[in-house]
Design goal:
This protein is of the alpha+beta class. It has one domain (11-140): 3-Layer(aba) Sandwich (Cytidine Deaminase, domain 2), CATH 3.40.140. The chain has four helices and eight strands. The chain has helices at residues 19-34, 77-87, 110-119, 138-141; strands spanning 39-42, 45-56, 61-68, 74-75, 93-100, 104-106, 127-129, 135-137. Strands 1, 2, 3, 4, 5, 6, 7 and 8 form an eight-stranded mixed beta sheet that branches. The longest helix is centred in the N-terminal third of the chain and has 16 residues, at 19-34. The chain starts with 18 loop residues before the first helix and ends in a 9-residue tail after the last helix. Residues 76, 78, 108-109, 111-112 line the site of zinc ion.
Length: 150
């Protein structure tokens, strides 16, 4: 783990500290919370226990929910949100947030971090909103990333 002082700065800084940007951050979190909530599909299968929202460089917000199935099937909410974004032919993410049941913000898993980075290498500079109120660049969650060296 790198010392706190060596963390890279957010290059895009999609929210900053202004009132308008705080409202944009809140809108993104609220968009994720609005679609969060587990519901039963059948037996022990469910969907929606985690949701995610992505803010793109064009200013659009895309959301997604997770699907939890058996035999290793299903996918994370962030991947569903990325798919929604790609449907609109957008790839450049400025910020992403994931929310679990109860409205708890959490960090994307490694697969989701990698997915967001691979759809557009610029996304290594997107802000990941974490539960403790911090925003960190995706590249800090994917140190020594192979796309950053290309
Ligand atoms: Zn994930």
């Amino acid at each position: 783990m790198r010392p706190q002082g060596s963390r890279s700065q957010l290059k895009c800084d999609p929210f900053g500290d202004t009132k308008a940007m705080n409202e944009a951050r809140s809108r993104l979190i609220e968009a994720a919370k609005a679609v969060c909530g587990a519901f039963r599909l059948r037996e022990d299968f469910s969907a929606g226990s985690v949701s995610a929202a992505i803010l793109t460089a064009k200013g659009n917000i895309y959301t997604g929910i997770c699907i939890d199935l058996a035999c290793g099937l299903g996918f994370c909410a962030e991947v569903a949100a990325v798919a929604e974004m790609l449907k609109a032919r957008e790839t450049h993410v400025l910020a992403v947030v994931a929310v679990s049941n109860g409205g708890v913000l959490g960090a994307p898993c490694g697969r989701c971090r990698e997915t967001i980075a691979q759809v557009d290498p610029q996304n290594l500079d997107c802000a990941v909103i974490l539960g403790d109120g911090r925003e960190v660049p995706l590249r800090d969650l994917l140190p020594e990333h192979w796309l950053a060296e290309q």
